[in-house]
Specification:
Elements (H helix, E strand, L loop, with lengths): L11 E6 L5 E8 L4 E6 L20 E6 L18 H15 L4 E6 L1 H12 L4 E7 L6 H8 L8 H8 L10 H9 L4 H18 L6 H8 L1 H16 L8 H4 L9 E6 L8 H7 L5 E6 L9 H17 L2
Parallel strand pairs: 3-4, 3-5, 5-6, 6-7, 7-8
Antiparallel strand pairs: 1-2, 2-4
Helix pairs in contact: 4-6, 5-8, 6-7, 6-8
């Protein structure tokens, strides 16, 4: 079974100003002359970390990481102004132009798969291939499954802590109720809501419980950005048209893709991956029998690294 490549350090780190408000953290590692690959992290409102570089053979890939608007090392932290899907897609294109890259491989999981697919549909000529994990189509039913009704039937004990933040009178719409608290002027209420929201996601993300993941998602800096930005996107239907990704699948039908999805993914159920796969004639679908949503579960990691090794040879 494949495991992560050894730890490496970036050879270049910078802040890229994309407008008068937002500055993005951007780094490169691996081989400066290798195949360019963009790591597109999840959330929205998640961030990259040191393990993000380790899915790629550093001798073969020019590994590019960035933190999306408002999260990670990008500034300003947890900022919602000028933070929409269109802004993030424009940022990805700005990064490509800034780095002088003609075309690249996209590697995205969860919300990162959403953003990778949307970018590929907008700029198919710039995408050499797609490696996608934990497909998130960002439809109303996909958001409702995790934040309103669906996953709560699988994790009723964890759901109690998530639901406890919201009065009964507002529980018909948890996303809106959380958004109200996450954007309030009450700092204590904001942090309580952020921790509850982010902890719920962490507890549902792995097949086997991961205390380290829960601790990471509960850390105030991480939790506030993820919860605020996710709620901001989801209360606005992710700033995309209903069913947009599937409806525009023909735009990326010729792009080779490898899709990796955990059989027991409770954050983004596997039916989303199957629906996408059926519309992409150049795609492979690998359903991992003993995994949930996290990229760091052994079976998911194994399949992702097989995919990056495959594209390293294919695009050489």
């Amino acid at each position: 079974m494949h495991t992560l490549f050894p730890e490496i350090q970036p050879y270049l780190q910078q802040q890229l100003s994309v407008d008068t408000l937002h500055s993005l953290y951007l780094e490169e590692s691996g081989n400066p002359h290798g195949q360019p690959v963009l790591f597109v992290h999840g959330g929205p409102g998640g961030a990259t970390s040191e393990f993000s570089r380790r899915f790629f053979d550093p001798e073969k890939y020019r590994i590019i990481l960035f933190d999306q608007r408002g999260c990670g090392k990008s500034t300003p932290h947890a900022e919602l102004r000028d933070n929409t899907t269109a802004h993030l897609l424009a940022d990805m294109e700005a990064i490509r132009l800034h780095l002088g890259i003609d075309s690249w491989l996209l590697f995205g999981g969860s919300w990162g798969s959403t953003l990778s697919l949307l970018y590929a549909q907008a700029h198919p000529e710039r995408v050499n291939g797609l490696i996608l994990r934990g497909i998130f189509l960002c439809r109303a039913q996909d958001i409702r499954w995790f934040y309103q009704e669906g996953a709560n039937q699988i994790f009723p004990d964890h759901w109690q802590e998530y639901a406890a933040q919201i009065p009964k009178s507002e529980q018909h719409d948890f996303v809106t109720a959380y958004y109200k608290r996450l954007t309030s002027s009450n700092e204590i209420a904001r942090m309580a809501a952020a921790k509850a929201w982010s902890s719920w996601e962490a507890r549902c993300s792995t097949l086997n419980p991961s205390n380290s993941l829960v601790s990471h998602f509960s850390e105030p800096h991480v939790a506030l950005a993820m919860a605020r930005i996710e709620a901001h996107y989801f209360v606005n239907q992710s700033f995309i048209a209903p069913n947009q990704i599937l409806d525009q699948a023909d735009k990326i039908s010729s792009i080779p893709a490898i899709i990796v999805h955990g059989r027991y993914d409770m954050v983004c159920p596997v039916n989303q991956a199957l629906s996408l796969y059926e519309l992409l004639p150049e795609a492979e679908l690998h359903i991992v029998r003993d995994a949930g949503h996290s990229a760091l579960e052994p079976g998911i990691t194994d399949n992702l690294i097989k995919a990056t090794n495959h594209f390293a040879m294919r695009l050489a």
